[in-house]
Amino acid sequence: MGQIGIEKETLKMMIRENVKTLYRKNLETASAEEIYQAAVFSLRDLITDKWIKTHDTYSEKNAKIVYYLSMEFLMGRFLGNALINMGMNTVIKEVFAELGIDYNTVEEAEPDPGLGNGGLGRLAACFLDSLSTLELPAYGCGIRYHYGIFEQKVENGYQVEAPDNWLEDGDPWGIRRNEYAVEIKFGGHVRAMLKENGGYRFVQEGYQSVMAIPYDYPVVGYGNNTVNTLRLWDARAKNRIDLKYFNEGNYQKAAEEETLAKTLTDVLYPADEHYQGKELRLRQQFFFISATVQRVVARFKENHGDFNLLPEKVAFQLNDTHPSIAVAELMRVLVDENDLPWDQAWEITQKVCAYTNHTIMSEALEKWPLDLFSRLLPRIYQIVEEINRRFCLELTEKYGNNPEKIRRLAIIADGQIRMAYMAIVGSHSVNGVAALHTEILKNQELKDFYKLYPEKFNNKTNGITQRRWLLHANPQLAELITEKIGDGWITDLAQLEKILPYVEDEEFQKRFMEIKRANKVALAKYIKSAKGIDINPDSIFDIQVKRLHEYKRQLLNVLHIIGLYNKLKMNPGLDMVPRTYIFGAKAAAGYRRAKLIIKLINSVGDVVNNDESICGKIKVVFLENYRVSLAERLIPAADVSEQISTAGKEASGTGNMKFMLNGALTVGTMDGANVEIFDEVGEENIFIFGMSAEEVQEKYNGEYDPWSVYNMNQEVRMAMTALIDGTFSNDTCLFRELYDALLNGFGGSKADEYFVLEDYADYQRAQMAVDYAYRDKERWARMAIYNTAKSGKFSSDRTIKEYAKEIWSLPSVPIEF
């Protein structure tokens, strides 16, 4: 084990000294934030030796390195994760106890940086943890947004966005690396210069530029000496101020470069409903990709003269479509800056790049207007044009003169650059993130490309890191498992199958469910303090936490709650197990309907929670500002995991895996990774409902009239009527848009586009099955334990091993210390 040995007294002294040096205070007068920062600097002292050794070893061994390129890294808090992976979790708690400080207040003082929207960024974080734990040489590369995804507040039931200023009190984990700064150029024009060999060199002139400055964050492997790097790029003006303009009194012009740099990395994902938002997002993508590619090639050149070796030393993994500009930027650096012939550079680029597709939703396959792209990135645009020209020639050779086929596949068509297509053409591997998702890509969304390049397509089902999502988030359950089967599961989750013999063990069942109840009590206490709502820890905790999007169908969940409430109003003596419905979700700032669904959830909660006639049988809680640290409270306390997206819409999901690992039972459609969870646990240990992906596709292609469901199902009719009859708002028009969207279509969307009403009856059946199963305490315990025992497949360690072997050809490099 690569655990760090340090005397407790030494650690105490380091923390005391850091508080004194950093803040001119002693422990008694320092705030929780100050003590947290002092503790981080003490730990960084210990981490940095291994960090330096890791990268020295990679250089000495001339190791191949994978660069995981992602617009999002939703890391969660660093401290707890680092301590667990360093084997110092117990020691640090003892140190703080002996200093008379509550460790929990120190951990809570760390901001939870929201550098991602949800699953995509959280997956990237799990992958980095696995890469370090598996001793695989890797960098995560992204953007150091000054403000992450907004902090969500709820005012009068509505989502209100506030800045997520995670850097306000400093950044103790990040190390600024000025020596690796690179220049990033935007705009201007391109001039062709004749070279001695008769070819041309293309030079960008009249451009604006910013400097990209890397900040490095340590990613500590579990139980070993590996410390990989998360590199987040920040922007700085090349010239802070133009004194000529300043002295002339033109202060705005004087600070133009400074303003450009600041806005570039200010906010995660600006809203792109307007042209300026689109432009800023494209700038962000090119900014971090260009910075990474330039730095990687410069590093390669320090040790190698032959660029044909680049694919043996470097792998770029494009995490979704956002980084796909890497294909063109690598071509630019190889062709323009290093004089490689086009064909050689293209072969190298394809071998280096690999593309992960994370979505079935066509609107997420980014497309850029030609005028914007060519104005902002003139040389990159020329390169994309040339890639497209050669690709279209290849298509003509294969399919003959078939303009419609070529238009369908072309990278540039209909006045747009289709970035996903460039990623496919410019990569050697294209993977989906769940078995069903990959099949849908191959047979529907990307079927033309699959026919063209069948050898490129493969599946890599997503995973989660058990270090954060069980060991750190649910320490009591982790302890019970380790007591029974040893701690091998921490690095080999498949070993959880060893608890299968305990499924029928009454003593184990009792302890397992006692831990679940303790987690529920802790969550109930948190909800009482945060929201003032009393909830019953013996009720079923039914939890749906994820981004708010119509295809994820929070609306189906809340509509069913309304249906249940209506039943209770008619029959207060209804025989049912009390249930607490808990939601957590952020809606994109410009996504009006999603925000209206949040208002509906809160309005339903206000009515239901205060209606004494239903005797507390149902409660509805919306927890604001859903984030990694809140997920760590919620997931261990869940009885039921709501994974109810319209089949064929969710690429994978990873929340479903976290809940399963912690002994929650899934209510879900056969969508994304739910299909594989079903395969692992069998139909008797999961609650499946709704149409299959094929049936959904047939409904889209055929005729579907939600009015027929409305007319045939009284419960649906009453629930729908409650949206517009004043039950949940004095303003009967408030939720009319949701009513119309389901029955008639609204604002260009089809009626009931995601089949909420069509799947309602079967969802209700599944929820009754949950109620029935929960009454049999032993059966429920067996099902919960079985889910935990069978979750081994869903470790990100397994996923990363598959990437390393089948896509990157990346050997592990153990660090000797």
TrEMBL record:
Give the Enzyme Commission number. Answer: 2.4.1.1
Q: Which Pfam families match?
A: Phosphorylase (PF00343)
Cite the Gene3D superfamilies for this sequence: Glycogen Phosphorylase B (3.40.50.2000)
Annotated GO MF terms: glycogen phosphorylase activity; pyridoxal phosphate binding
Q: Name one GO cellular component term.
A: cytoplasm
Q: Which cofactor does it need?
A: pyridoxal 5'-phosphate
Could you tell me the Gene Ontology terms of the biological process aspect for this record? Answer: glycogen catabolic process
Query: Can you state which reaction this protein catalyses?
Result: [(1->4)-alpha-D-glucosyl](n) + phosphate = [(1->4)-alpha-D-glucosyl](n-1) + alpha-D-glucose 1-phosphate
Xref: CDD domains: GT35_Glycogen_Phosphorylase
Tell me which residues bear N6-(pyridoxal phosphate)lysine: 658
Matching entries from SUPFAM superfamilies are given as:
UDP-Glycosyltransferase/glycogen phosphorylase
InterPro entries attached here? Glycg_phsphrylas (IPR011833), Glyco_trans_35 (IPR000811), Pyridoxal_P_attach_site (IPR035090)
The record's keywords, sorted A to Z, are: Carbohydrate metabolism, Glycogen metabolism, Glycosyltransferase, Phosphoprotein, Pyridoxal phosphate, Transferase
Q: Membrane spanning segments where?
A: none
Checking PROSITE patterns in the record gives: PHOSPHORYLASE
Q: Which family does it belong to?
A: Belongs to the glycogen phosphorylase family.
Matching entries from NCBIfam families are given as: P_ylase
The UniProt function text for this chain reads: Allosteric enzyme that catalyzes the rate-limiting step in glycogen catabolism, the phosphorolytic cleavage of glycogen to produce glucose-1-phosphate, and plays a central role in maintaining cellular and organismal glucose homeostasis. Phosphorylase is an important allosteric enzyme in carbohydrate metabolism. Enzymes from different sources differ in their regulatory mechanisms and in their natural substrates. However, all known phosphorylases share catalytic and structural properties.
Protein's name according to its UniProt entry: Alpha-1,4 glucan phosphorylase
The upper taxonomy is: Bacteria, Bacillati, Bacillota, Clostridia, Lachnospirales
